[in-house]
Amino acid sequence: MAKIKSNKQINGTFGAVWLDGEKLADIDSFEAKVTINYEDVNMAEDLATHKKMTGWAGEGTLALKKVYSTGASLVGEKLKDGQMPTFILVGKLADPDAYGSERVSLSEVTFNEFTLMKFGQKELQTEELPFAFADYDLVDLIERR
């Protein structure tokens, strides 16, 4: 295997997120992951525990610099009215010095919680919005060279 140059490790500074088509200028960090659900399967005359995939769950966290009341404005009043809106999130990670970029589109995004208010003296504030999603598309991937 060829040696990888250190400058090819992708830098998160070039990450971006779009919420329903609008680019978020106040993005601090973004994570989306899939957890695979399994059931144990035991086979006759076999001491090993085997696995059968039974589904998956998508979840993540969107962290924003506290500039706007994003969580409250997206979900707050609708939640009190008994509505739960869904969203589309697109995340992109591109570094001009890396081998390429990756992009993922998440659909049926629902936010799990939002903070009404939080602050600390002499601290820059952030807002974390944990979410779940029901579908994803791998739009761009960084291929092995």
From TrEMBL:
Native species: Marinisporobacter balticus
Protein name from the UniProt record: Tail tube protein
Gene3D superfamilies on file: Phage tail tube protein (2.30.110.40)
Superkingdom field: Bacteria
Family annotation (SUPFAM superfamilies): Phage tail proteins
